[in-house]
Amino acid sequence: MHALVSLHDAVFHQVERAGNWLLPLAARFVFASTLLLYFWNSGLTKLGGGFTGLFSPSIGAYSQIFPKQLEAAGYDVSQFGLFHKLVVLAGTYAEFILPLMIVIGLLTRLAALGMIGFVIVQSLTDIYGHGATDDKTLGALFDRFPDAVILDQRLFWVFLLAVLVVKGAGALSVDALLRHRIEPAMA
């Protein structure tokens, strides 16, 4: 029995060591293959036309982020102030910048924290702003149905991002490259 336990410990010690560099890389790959284009396409719907659209969000941006306020304003964006515009621009830029930072592994822990905050705000906006409270969309934890958009899918997103917050970007990342360049200079 002792030999079996020793073999188990030896094998899974190697698995754990491999996991320290493989898990963050796999998490970034899963993020890139499942969520990168989701967020980028969502960001594109918020941009206005042409180059100036980078600084002039579309009405769709306001309807996604401030749905009830836009309806109350009669869908007249000119009634919104600087605060609303800055929130919309920050949210739009975050949908492009934070996912890119995660994929290339640049300031990954901070980017993943930012994305967790983004997903929470996105979910709250869907629930309270858009009224996404039906069982199929909102879902419920421990309900045996794993297909609800908000509580099921986004819980997986947050878990994936939490792995990156805890483990970092891994060995194949800009973070690792910068760390290898900075460490000798600090020594």
Automatic annotation (TrEMBL):
Q: Which cell locations does it reside in?
A: Membrane
Name the membrane topology term.
Multi-pass membrane protein
In the UniProt record, does the keyword Transmembrane occur? yes
Keywords tagged on the record:
Membrane, Transmembrane, Transmembrane helix
Could you list the residue ranges that cross the membrane? Answer: 21-40, 96-121, 155-178
Family matches, as InterPro entries: DoxX, L27_dom
The L27 domain extends over 1-19
Superkingdom assignment: Bacteria
This protein is called DoxX family protein
Source organism per UniProt:
Leisingera daeponensis
